[in-house]
């Protein structure tokens, strides 16, 4: 038995003979003479170690093995036929896989918009989505385990040289607070969102629920600067990694939190969101990727992100 792998030419010959059930007609269909066709089928049978056809002087029929093999061979030939258009689609970024990570805050406004647009334009691209904090994303990018990430700016200096960054959205911070506390400071008790501003000075004795600084140093420092501008030193009551958890802790009455405005869409029983009475700080979310590695699929996603940033007035 030969160890040679069958080639596509032999497989096409096999299908032609199986469908015509006659070597002469199959040879005419293939625009060749009969002897080399017969030799090619013999070589294929030798390669596979089985008989594919039962031959008589007047006819040729598939053996049971040949009959079972025929649909598999047809699938292989169809897959081979699809290789060229697939390769062209991959080169244009119309097919492939994109590994994208995102911070939890992006899940409440930015991420659904980008995914909806990308999915509509590139339905054949398979997305591998991972929720992760900014620091984890930067490590995953450095290790090559994701293609891009939606992170909170700014990037730590140690990563800046190897990565490209595109700002996408800027939004103000708001205060997430227990609803009963909101009512005591002039808010409307029944509303998840109250337009009445609240000052951090009115919350000076209320613990702050925040994430550890190493997860997103820039974001953490903005929060601390808000308290500093109000002449306050925050009393950190609880720390949590995910924004969903932070808001849940606020719901449980553990303190207040400073969160991006889009997090208003994360509704929790007993939580109210209020704007700042003082100057409103903003948080920037951006797309980051390895500068030296931009696949066609990633380039297509970057194009959509850049168009969205331009539409909302966020420049590079």
What is the secondary structure topology, with strand pairs?
Blueprint: H1 8-20, H2 23-29, H3 34-48, E1 53-55, E2 60-62, H4 64-81, H5 83-91, E3 95-102, H6 110-121, E4 124-131, H7 134-142, E5 148-152, H8 157-160, E6 163-178, H9 179-184, E7 208-210, H10 217-229, E8 236-239, H11 243-251, E9 257-260, E10 271-274, E11 282-290, H12 296-311
Parallel strand pairs: 3-4, 3-5, 7-8
Antiparallel strand pairs: 1-2, 5-11, 6-9, 6-10, 6-11
Helix pairs in contact: 1-2, 1-3, 1-4
Total tally of structural domains: 3
CATH superfamily of the largest domain: Periplasmic binding protein-like II
CATH architecture of the largest domain: 3-Layer(aba) Sandwich
Helix percent band? 40-55%
Task: Write down the CATH class of the largest domain.
Answer: Alpha Beta
Rg (C-alpha, Å): 31 Å
Instruction: Sum up the overall morphology in one term.
Output: elongated
Q: What's the count of strands?
A: 11
Distance between the termini: 64 Å
> What amount of the residues lies in strands?
15-25%
Average pLDDT over all residues: 88
Spans where pLDDT lies below 50 across 5 or more residues = none
Q: In the CATH scheme, what's the topology name of the largest domain? A: D-Maltodextrin-Binding Protein, domain 2
Structural class: alpha/beta
- Tell me the series of helices and strands, N- to C-terminal: HHHEEHHEHEHEHEHEHEHEEEH
């Amino acid at each position: 038995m030969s160890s040679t792998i069958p080639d596509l030419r032999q497989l096409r010959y096999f299908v032609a003979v199986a469908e015509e059930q006659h070597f002469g007609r199959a040879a005419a269909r293939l625009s060749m003479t009969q002897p080399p066709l017969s030799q090619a089928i013999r070589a294929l049978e030798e390669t596979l170690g089985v008989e594919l056809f039962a031959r008589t002087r007047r006819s040729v029929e598939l053996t049971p093995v040949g009959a079972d093999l025929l649909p598999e061979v047809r699938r292989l030939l169809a897959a081979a036929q699809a290789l060229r258009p697939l390769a062209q689609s991959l080169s244009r970024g119309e097919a492939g896989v994109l590994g994208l990570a995102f911070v939890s805050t992006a899940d409440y406004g930015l991420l659904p918009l980008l995914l909806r647009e990308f999915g509509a334009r590139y339905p054949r691209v398979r997305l591998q989505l991972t929720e992760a904090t900014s620091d984890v994303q930067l490590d995953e990018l450095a290790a090559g385990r994701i293609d891009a990430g939606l992170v909170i700016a700014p990037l730590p200096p140690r990563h800046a040289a190897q990565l490209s960054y595109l700002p996408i959205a800027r939004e103000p911070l708001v205060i997430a607070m227990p609803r009963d506390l909101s009512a005591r400071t002039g808010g409307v008790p029944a509303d998840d969102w109250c337009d009445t501003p609240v000052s951090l000075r009115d919350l000076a004795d209320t613990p702050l629920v925040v994430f550890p600084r190493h997860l997103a140093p820039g974001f953490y420092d903005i929060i601390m600067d808000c308290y500093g501008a109000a002449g306050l030193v925050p009393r950190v009551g609880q720390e949590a990694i995910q924004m969903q958890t932070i808001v849940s802790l606020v719901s449980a009455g553990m303190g207040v939190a400073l969160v991006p405005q889009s997090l208003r869409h994360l509704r929790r029983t007993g939580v109210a969101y209020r704007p700042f009475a003082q100057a409103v700080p903003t948080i920037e979310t951006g797309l980051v990727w390895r500068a030296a590695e931009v696949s066609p699929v990633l380039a297509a996603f970057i194009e959509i992100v850049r168009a969205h940033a331009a539409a909302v007035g966020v420049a590079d």
